[in-house]
Protein backbone atom coordinates (compact mmCIF):
# COMPACT_ATOMS: atom_id res chain seq x y z
CA UNK A 1 0.00 0.00 0.00
CA UNK A 2 2.68 2.44 1.11
CA UNK A 3 4.95 1.43 -1.72
CA UNK A 4 2.22 2.17 -4.18
CA UNK A 5 1.79 5.69 -2.93
CA UNK A 6 5.48 6.18 -3.54
CA UNK A 7 5.08 4.84 -7.02
CA UNK A 8 2.13 7.21 -7.43
CA UNK A 9 4.40 10.10 -6.57
CA UNK A 10 6.90 8.87 -9.09
CA UNK A 11 4.08 8.59 -11.54
CA UNK A 12 3.11 12.17 -10.86
CA UNK A 13 6.59 13.42 -11.45
CA UNK A 14 7.10 11.16 -14.40
CA UNK A 15 3.79 11.47 -16.14
CA UNK A 16 3.99 15.19 -16.26
CA UNK A 17 2.36 15.87 -19.55
CA UNK A 18 1.48 14.40 -22.85
CA UNK A 19 3.36 15.78 -25.78
CA UNK A 20 5.06 14.10 -28.67
CA UNK A 21 8.73 13.70 -28.10
CA UNK A 22 9.35 14.95 -31.64
CA UNK A 23 8.16 18.43 -30.72
CA UNK A 24 10.19 18.40 -27.55
CA UNK A 25 13.29 17.24 -29.33
CA UNK A 26 12.95 19.94 -31.99
CA UNK A 27 12.55 22.43 -29.21
CA UNK A 28 15.58 21.10 -27.40
CA UNK A 29 17.75 21.08 -30.46
CA UNK A 30 16.71 24.63 -31.27
CA UNK A 31 17.48 25.68 -27.73
CA UNK A 32 20.83 23.93 -27.79
CA UNK A 33 21.73 25.49 -31.10
CA UNK A 34 20.74 28.77 -29.55
CA UNK A 35 18.61 29.80 -32.47
CA UNK A 36 15.31 29.77 -30.68
CA UNK A 37 14.88 33.46 -31.02
CA UNK A 38 11.94 35.03 -32.70
CA UNK A 39 14.20 36.95 -35.08
CA UNK A 40 15.72 33.74 -36.34
CA UNK A 41 12.44 32.69 -37.90
CA UNK A 42 12.57 33.94 -41.45
CA UNK A 43 9.25 35.13 -42.88
CA UNK A 44 9.84 33.53 -46.26
CA UNK A 45 10.07 30.09 -44.76
CA UNK A 46 6.69 28.55 -45.37
CA UNK A 47 6.88 26.34 -42.30
CA UNK A 48 8.29 28.96 -39.95
CA UNK A 49 4.90 29.85 -38.53
CA UNK A 50 4.11 26.23 -37.80
CA UNK A 51 7.51 25.73 -36.27
CA UNK A 52 6.99 28.74 -34.05
CA UNK A 53 3.66 27.29 -32.87
CA UNK A 54 5.33 23.96 -32.13
CA UNK A 55 8.11 25.64 -30.21
CA UNK A 56 5.65 27.73 -28.22
CA UNK A 57 3.66 24.64 -27.39
CA UNK A 58 6.79 22.77 -26.33
CA UNK A 59 7.76 25.72 -24.19
CA UNK A 60 4.36 25.76 -22.50
CA UNK A 61 4.51 22.02 -21.86
CA UNK A 62 7.96 22.36 -20.42
CA UNK A 63 6.89 25.15 -18.09
CA UNK A 64 3.91 23.13 -16.98
CA UNK A 65 6.10 20.15 -16.15
CA UNK A 66 8.49 22.33 -14.20
CA UNK A 67 5.62 23.78 -12.14
CA UNK A 68 4.17 20.31 -11.52
CA UNK A 69 7.49 19.12 -10.15
CA UNK A 70 7.83 22.24 -8.03
CA UNK A 71 4.32 21.93 -6.62
CA UNK A 72 4.72 18.21 -5.91
CA UNK A 73 8.03 18.70 -4.11
CA UNK A 74 6.44 21.47 -2.06
CA UNK A 75 3.32 19.54 -1.20
CA UNK A 76 5.32 16.48 -0.13
CA UNK A 77 8.02 18.47 1.68
CA UNK A 78 10.77 16.95 -0.42
CA UNK A 79 14.28 18.15 -1.18
CA UNK A 80 14.59 21.88 -0.76
CA UNK A 81 11.08 21.93 0.75
CA UNK A 82 12.10 19.61 3.53
CA UNK A 83 10.46 20.71 6.75
CA UNK A 84 11.93 19.56 10.04
CA UNK A 85 8.57 19.95 11.73
CA UNK A 86 6.90 17.74 9.22
CA UNK A 87 7.77 14.09 9.20
CA UNK A 88 7.80 13.16 5.55
CA UNK A 89 6.77 9.69 4.60
CA UNK A 90 9.15 9.77 1.65
CA UNK A 91 12.83 9.23 2.02
CA UNK A 92 14.76 11.77 0.06
CA UNK A 93 18.49 12.06 -0.58
CA UNK A 94 20.01 15.00 1.29
CA UNK A 95 22.03 16.14 -1.72
CA UNK A 96 21.98 15.66 -5.49
CA UNK A 97 24.02 12.80 -6.91
CA UNK A 98 26.41 14.96 -8.86
CA UNK A 99 28.37 12.01 -10.20
CA UNK A 100 25.46 10.68 -12.23
CA UNK A 101 25.29 13.84 -14.35
CA UNK A 102 26.91 14.24 -17.75
CA UNK A 103 28.04 17.83 -17.77
CA UNK A 104 28.85 19.35 -21.15
CA UNK A 105 30.37 22.75 -20.45
CA UNK A 106 30.88 23.59 -24.12
CA UNK A 107 27.17 23.25 -24.84
CA UNK A 108 26.04 24.46 -21.43
CA UNK A 109 24.11 21.25 -20.93
CA UNK A 110 23.90 18.96 -17.90
CA UNK A 111 22.05 15.73 -18.43
CA UNK A 112 20.80 13.40 -15.73
CA UNK A 113 20.26 10.04 -17.40
CA UNK A 114 17.11 8.19 -16.46
CA UNK A 115 17.87 4.70 -17.71
CA UNK A 116 15.11 3.20 -19.85
CA UNK A 117 13.83 6.70 -20.67
CA UNK A 118 15.72 7.70 -23.79
CA UNK A 119 19.15 7.61 -22.19
CA UNK A 120 20.77 5.82 -25.13
CA UNK A 121 19.51 8.53 -27.49
CA UNK A 122 20.84 11.26 -25.28
CA UNK A 123 24.22 9.59 -24.74
CA UNK A 124 24.37 9.35 -28.49
CA UNK A 125 23.48 13.05 -28.89
CA UNK A 126 26.10 14.06 -26.34
CA UNK A 127 28.75 11.99 -28.15
CA UNK A 128 27.85 13.62 -31.48
CA UNK A 129 27.84 17.09 -29.92
CA UNK A 130 31.31 16.37 -28.61
CA UNK A 131 32.76 15.40 -31.92
CA UNK A 132 32.58 11.62 -31.96
CA UNK A 133 31.72 10.74 -35.56
CA UNK A 134 28.53 8.85 -36.23
CA UNK A 135 30.40 6.01 -37.97
CA UNK A 136 32.63 5.53 -34.95
CA UNK A 137 29.55 5.22 -32.73
CA UNK A 138 27.88 2.84 -35.15
CA UNK A 139 30.97 0.63 -35.28
CA UNK A 140 31.83 0.72 -31.63
CA UNK A 141 31.11 -2.36 -29.59
CA UNK A 142 31.46 -0.40 -26.35
CA UNK A 143 28.52 0.74 -24.27
CA UNK A 144 27.34 4.18 -25.33
CA UNK A 145 27.16 5.40 -21.72
CA UNK A 146 30.84 4.54 -21.29
CA UNK A 147 31.77 6.35 -24.50
CA UNK A 148 29.78 9.40 -23.34
CA UNK A 149 31.52 9.22 -19.98
CA UNK A 150 34.90 9.19 -21.71
CA UNK A 151 34.12 12.52 -23.41
CA UNK A 152 32.32 14.00 -20.38
CA UNK A 153 34.14 12.63 -17.34
CA UNK A 154 32.81 13.02 -13.81
CA UNK A 155 33.82 16.30 -12.24
CA UNK A 156 35.26 16.99 -8.83
CA UNK A 157 32.41 17.66 -6.43
CA UNK A 158 33.13 21.36 -5.91
CA UNK A 159 33.41 21.98 -9.64
CA UNK A 160 30.27 19.94 -10.39
CA UNK A 161 28.24 21.89 -7.83
CA UNK A 162 29.25 25.18 -9.41
CA UNK A 163 28.96 24.21 -13.06
CA UNK A 164 25.69 22.38 -12.64
CA UNK A 165 24.05 25.33 -10.96
CA UNK A 166 24.91 27.60 -13.90
CA UNK A 167 24.19 25.24 -16.75
CA UNK A 168 21.03 24.23 -18.53
CA UNK A 169 19.82 21.06 -16.89
CA UNK A 170 18.02 18.37 -18.82
CA UNK A 171 15.84 15.56 -17.53
CA UNK A 172 14.10 13.11 -19.86
CA UNK A 173 11.26 11.11 -18.34
CA UNK A 174 8.89 8.38 -19.37
CA UNK A 175 5.74 7.00 -17.81
CA UNK A 176 7.17 5.22 -14.75
CA UNK A 177 5.24 1.98 -15.29
CA UNK A 178 6.28 1.86 -18.92
CA UNK A 179 9.84 2.36 -17.80
CA UNK A 180 9.57 -0.52 -15.31
CA UNK A 181 8.19 -2.83 -17.97
CA UNK A 182 10.95 -1.79 -20.34
CA UNK A 183 13.59 -2.48 -17.68
CA UNK A 184 12.08 -5.92 -17.01
CA UNK A 185 11.95 -6.85 -20.68
CA UNK A 186 15.43 -5.60 -21.38
CA UNK A 187 17.29 -6.88 -18.35
CA UNK A 188 15.40 -9.62 -16.55
CA UNK A 189 12.99 -11.42 -18.82
CA UNK A 190 15.55 -13.43 -20.75
CA UNK A 191 18.95 -14.32 -19.36
CA UNK A 192 19.96 -16.01 -22.61
CA UNK A 193 19.27 -13.19 -25.05
CA UNK A 194 20.81 -9.74 -24.71
CA UNK A 195 23.93 -10.89 -22.91
CA UNK A 196 25.76 -7.92 -24.43
CA UNK A 197 23.33 -5.80 -22.37
CA UNK A 198 24.25 -7.71 -19.26
CA UNK A 199 21.22 -9.96 -18.90
CA UNK A 200 23.28 -12.74 -17.29
CA UNK A 201 24.71 -10.27 -14.82
CA UNK A 202 21.20 -9.06 -14.04
CA UNK A 203 20.03 -12.63 -13.57
CA UNK A 204 22.78 -13.34 -11.07
CA UNK A 205 22.44 -10.05 -9.26
CA UNK A 206 18.64 -9.74 -9.13
CA UNK A 207 16.73 -12.34 -11.14
CA UNK A 208 17.82 -15.40 -9.21
CA UNK A 209 17.12 -13.65 -5.89
CA UNK A 210 13.73 -12.43 -7.01
CA UNK A 211 12.74 -15.95 -8.02
CA UNK A 212 14.04 -17.44 -4.78
CA UNK A 213 12.00 -14.98 -2.76
CA UNK A 214 8.82 -14.51 -4.75
CA UNK A 215 8.17 -17.70 -6.69
CA UNK A 216 4.83 -19.06 -5.63
CA UNK A 217 4.25 -22.59 -6.85
CA UNK A 218 0.50 -22.09 -6.62
CA UNK A 219 0.68 -19.52 -9.39
CA UNK A 220 0.96 -21.05 -12.82
CA UNK A 221 3.75 -19.61 -14.96
CA UNK A 222 2.59 -17.72 -18.07
CA UNK A 223 1.66 -19.98 -20.98
CA UNK A 224 3.67 -19.63 -24.15
CA UNK A 225 0.75 -17.83 -25.83
CA UNK A 226 0.81 -15.27 -23.02
CA UNK A 227 4.38 -14.32 -23.70
CA UNK A 228 5.51 -11.81 -26.29
CA UNK A 229 8.63 -13.19 -27.83
CA UNK A 230 10.43 -11.55 -30.72
CA UNK A 231 11.36 -13.84 -33.60
CA UNK A 232 15.02 -14.92 -33.94
CA UNK A 233 15.58 -14.50 -30.23
CA UNK A 234 16.40 -17.64 -28.26
CA UNK A 235 13.81 -18.47 -25.60
CA UNK A 236 14.61 -17.69 -21.97
CA UNK A 237 16.23 -20.42 -19.91
CA UNK A 238 13.10 -20.69 -17.76
CA UNK A 239 14.92 -19.64 -14.62
CA UNK A 240 14.08 -15.93 -14.96
CA UNK A 241 11.58 -14.05 -12.79
CA UNK A 242 8.15 -13.45 -14.29
CA UNK A 243 6.81 -9.92 -14.61
CA UNK A 244 4.55 -10.63 -11.65
CA UNK A 245 7.51 -11.64 -9.51
CA UNK A 246 9.44 -8.54 -10.56
CA UNK A 247 6.51 -6.35 -9.50
CA UNK A 248 6.28 -8.25 -6.20
CA UNK A 249 9.95 -7.55 -5.67
CA UNK A 250 9.45 -3.82 -6.34
CA UNK A 251 6.49 -3.61 -3.96
CA UNK A 252 8.28 -5.44 -1.18
CA UNK A 253 11.61 -3.67 -1.47
CA UNK A 254 12.27 -0.52 0.43
CA UNK A 255 12.61 2.24 -2.15
CA UNK A 256 15.92 3.40 -0.80
CA UNK A 257 17.21 -0.13 -1.44
CA UNK A 258 16.02 -0.38 -5.06
CA UNK A 259 19.66 -0.16 -5.86
CA UNK A 260 19.51 -0.36 -9.60
CA UNK A 261 19.58 2.65 -11.89
CA UNK A 262 17.17 0.96 -14.29
CA UNK A 263 14.27 0.98 -11.85
CA UNK A 264 15.28 3.53 -9.27
CA UNK A 265 12.63 6.28 -9.12
CA UNK A 266 13.53 9.58 -10.78
CA UNK A 267 13.19 11.52 -7.57
CA UNK A 268 15.89 9.44 -5.90
CA UNK A 269 18.25 9.36 -8.86
CA UNK A 270 18.03 12.82 -10.44
CA UNK A 271 16.56 14.59 -7.37
CA UNK A 272 14.32 17.10 -9.20
CA UNK A 273 13.28 18.39 -5.77
CA UNK A 274 16.85 19.58 -5.21
CA UNK A 275 17.89 20.54 -8.72
CA UNK A 276 15.85 22.92 -10.84
CA UNK A 277 15.81 21.29 -14.23
CA UNK A 278 15.38 23.76 -17.09
CA UNK A 279 14.11 21.20 -19.55
CA UNK A 280 11.93 18.23 -18.72
CA UNK A 281 11.32 16.24 -21.86
CA UNK A 282 9.14 13.20 -22.05
CA UNK A 283 9.77 10.07 -23.99
CA UNK A 284 6.51 8.77 -25.41
C1 LIG B 1 32.49 0.48 -39.87
O1 LIG B 1 32.31 -0.89 -40.15
C2 LIG B 1 32.04 -1.15 -41.50
C3 LIG B 1 31.71 -2.63 -41.65
O2 LIG B 1 32.40 -3.41 -40.74
C4 LIG B 1 33.25 -0.73 -42.35
O3 LIG B 1 32.99 -0.95 -43.72
C5 LIG B 1 33.51 0.75 -42.11
O4 LIG B 1 34.69 1.16 -42.80
C6 LIG B 1 33.68 1.03 -40.65
N1 LIG B 1 33.78 2.48 -40.45
C7 LIG B 1 34.67 3.04 -39.61
C8 LIG B 1 34.62 4.52 -39.51
O5 LIG B 1 35.45 2.41 -38.95
C1 LIG C 1 23.44 28.23 -19.63
O1 LIG C 1 22.07 27.92 -19.45
C2 LIG C 1 21.46 28.57 -18.36
C3 LIG C 1 20.06 28.02 -18.22
O2 LIG C 1 19.34 28.13 -19.40
C4 LIG C 1 21.50 30.08 -18.59
O3 LIG C 1 20.92 30.72 -17.50
C5 LIG C 1 22.94 30.52 -18.75
O4 LIG C 1 22.97 31.87 -19.06
C6 LIG C 1 23.62 29.72 -19.84
N1 LIG C 1 25.03 30.04 -19.86
C7 LIG C 1 25.68 30.33 -20.98
C8 LIG C 1 27.13 30.61 -20.82
O5 LIG C 1 25.13 30.40 -22.07
From TrEMBL:
It is an enzyme of class 2 (transferase). Its EC number is 2.8.2.-. Keywords: Carbohydrate metabolism, Glycoprotein, Golgi apparatus, Membrane, Signal-anchor, Transferase, Transmembrane, Transmembrane helix. The chain crosses the membrane at residues 6-29. It comes from the Eukaryota. Its main location: Golgi. The keyword ATP-binding does not apply. The keyword Transmembrane applies. InterPro entries: Carb_sulfotrans_8-10, Sulfotransferase. Belongs to the sulfotransferase 2 family. This is Carbohydrate sulfotransferase. It comes from Neodiprion lecontei (Redheaded pine sawfly). The lineage of its organism: Eukaryota, Metazoa, Ecdysozoa, Arthropoda, Hexapoda.
Amino acid sequence: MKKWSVIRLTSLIGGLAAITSIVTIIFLIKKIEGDYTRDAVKPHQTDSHELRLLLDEANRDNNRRISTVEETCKRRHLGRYQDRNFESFYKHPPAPQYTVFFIDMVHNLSYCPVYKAGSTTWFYNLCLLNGIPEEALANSSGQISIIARSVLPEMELSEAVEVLEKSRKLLVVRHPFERLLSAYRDKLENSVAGREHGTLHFYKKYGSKIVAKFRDERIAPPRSDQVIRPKDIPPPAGIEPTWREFVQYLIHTDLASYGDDHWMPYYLFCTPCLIRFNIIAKRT
